[in-house]
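Exercise 7. Given the encoded structure of a 524-residue chain, write a plausible sequence.
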């Protein structure tokens, strides 16, 4: 896995090439997401529109092979949600990364279920009017990691298992739950066939019930082009391999590399880097195959990337059973609606708080009767540490906001302190585990006259300096949005931490940093 947080080696990353990916695009997709803020029902970006104002693939004139060869390369960090499809556990993580359709035929790639098993990677493609569905045996369940997917389609290959290749983090997938045979020299192969409309962040047009809630970065789609007309270049994708786009570093971790000197762009090819927050669909490949945005806002642009991985909430911790009361995640795992009955497994950060790094983050709640703080998730009883619902755990320190925000309070073990308040909008958390201190605040003011920058008036001064602690939160059945540095809500201002990373409503206290791998690396 690429850049997965590992407690024994947190944030151990290296980029020998000096190549950074600066931006990603987060798809929020809030189907049936209660008390959400902000609340677009569906966000995605597409190429071509219903009135043909955009671009359509036209392989009959651009590729003498008639749609026989294409490659796709992209980085993806998974989001998770209970699929709003009316299904059971087998449908829980049905999510589309990309879709394409022409006439009544649609294709998509993403995650779904193989024989009731969640999180398999699926390529549901069309060859002319024939369906070919490829499903991996592997299950991609690491929500802390950035995955690199390289897909190569070449129907001219003599060996049937070479006609579609999938490489994940530099390793070819050879174990398949389903691997149908593509006809040798087959033509009109989606996503490179006459009239195909391509969309990112959802399945094909009109099939909106398979959304995406994760992140995309460095998205390339390249195809054979034998004419090279206009701004395009004559291209043969046969030589493109996974190592065109990535490489293993000295630690054996797959990292991105700049492919610009090794690739060319055919007539319908594109490269999306998501660097333009007012035009996410801007094609920077040079041909001009731009996408149109739908319900995307500036906060959909993130600096959570394969070369600087930020913390999110971890769906593998909270409500991890397959029941109908599963916690509902969105906003790229920076938002969650809690299952009110699942008190023993709270949403917590994918990355532990570094013991030598001061950490800052923000919270926004869709309702009150909520809480946030820090907790250990390693207990002798096997239960998870709890923020706000069970005060018997020694390793949790938190702040709770009662109904109507009429008062707030603090707890650790069995000790509670309540204070009258008019409530807040955006709540703040600052942790200095080296000093054993934690502060809580709202709307730019720290409670108890605290001053994290000077270390004064911490709410608690007995935070464990040795336990692995995580940022955690709770709220009845309303939404919690957590800003680890990539805000899942609109900001009225913007403030980076002292290293220049993250984007917050309020300025992080001096010396307090966002929870991301570049900051962690500096403190290793």
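Solution.
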């Amino acid at each position: 896995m690429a850049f997965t947080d590992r407690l024994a080696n947190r944030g151990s990353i290296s980029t020998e090439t000096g190549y950074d990916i600066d931006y990603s695009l987060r798809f929020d997709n809030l189907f049936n997401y209660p008390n959400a803020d902000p609340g677009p029902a569906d966000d995605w970006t597409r190429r071509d529109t219903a009135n043909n104002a955009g671009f359509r693939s036209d392989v009959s004139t651009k590729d003498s092979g008639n749609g026989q060869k294409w490659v796709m390369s992209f980085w993806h960090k998974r989001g998770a949600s209970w699929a709003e499809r009316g299904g059971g556990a087998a449908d829980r993580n049905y999510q589309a990364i990309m879709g394409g359709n022409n006439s009544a035929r649609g294709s998509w790639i993403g995650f779904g279920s193989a024989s009731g098993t969640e999180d398999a990677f699926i390529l549901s493609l069309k060859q002319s009017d024939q369906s070919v569905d490829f499903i991996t045996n592997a299950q991609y369940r690491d929500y802390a990691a950035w995955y690199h997917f390289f897909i190569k389609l070449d129907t001219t290959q003599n060996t049937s298992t070479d006609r579609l290749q999938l490489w994940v983090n530099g390793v070819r997938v050879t174990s398949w739950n389903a691997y149908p045979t593509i006809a040798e020299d087959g033509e009109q192969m989606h996503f490179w066939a006459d009239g195909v409309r391509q969309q990112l962040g959802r399945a094909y047009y009109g099939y909106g019930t398979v959304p995406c809630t994760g992140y995309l970065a460095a998205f390339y789609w390249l195809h054979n082009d034998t004419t090279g007309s206009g701004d395009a270049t004559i291209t043969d994708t046969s030589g493109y391999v996974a190592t065109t786009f990535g490489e293993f570093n000295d630690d054996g971790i797959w990292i991105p590399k700049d492919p610009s000197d090794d690739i060319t762009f055919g007539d319908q090819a594109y490269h999306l880097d998501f660097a333009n927050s007012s035009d996410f669909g801007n094609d920077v490949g040079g041909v001009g195959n731009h996408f149109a945005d739908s319900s995307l806002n500036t906060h959909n642009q993130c600096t959570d990337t394969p070369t600087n991985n930020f913390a999110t909430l971890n769906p593998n911790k909270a409500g991890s059973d397959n029941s109908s009361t599963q916690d509902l995640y969105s906003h790229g795992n920076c938002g969650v609606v809690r299952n009110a009955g699942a008190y023993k497994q709270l949403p917590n950060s994918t990355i532990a708080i570094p013991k030598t790094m001061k950490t800052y983050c923000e919270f926004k709640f869709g309702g009150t009767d909520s809480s946030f703080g820090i907790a250990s998730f390693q207990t002798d009883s096997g239960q998870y540490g709890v923020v706000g619902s069970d005060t018997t755990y020694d390793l949790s320190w938190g702040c709770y906001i009662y109904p109507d925000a009429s008062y707030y309070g603090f707890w650790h073990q069995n000790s509670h302190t309540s204070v009258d308040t008019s409530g807040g909008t955006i709540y703040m958390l600052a942790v200095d585990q080296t000093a054993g201190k934690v502060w809580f605040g709202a709307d730019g003011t720290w409670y108890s006259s605290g001053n994290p920058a000077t270390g004064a008036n911490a709410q608690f001064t007995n935070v464990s300096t040795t336990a692995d602690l995580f940022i955690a939160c709770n709220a009845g059945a309303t939404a919690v949005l957590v800003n680890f540095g990539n805000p899942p809500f609109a900001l009225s201002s913007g403030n980076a931490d002292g290293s220049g990373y993250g984007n917050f409503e309020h300025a992080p206290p001096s010396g307090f940093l966002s929870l991301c791998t570049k900051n962690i690396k500096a403190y290793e």
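Remark. The radius of gyration is 24 Å. Students should compare their own answers with the one above.
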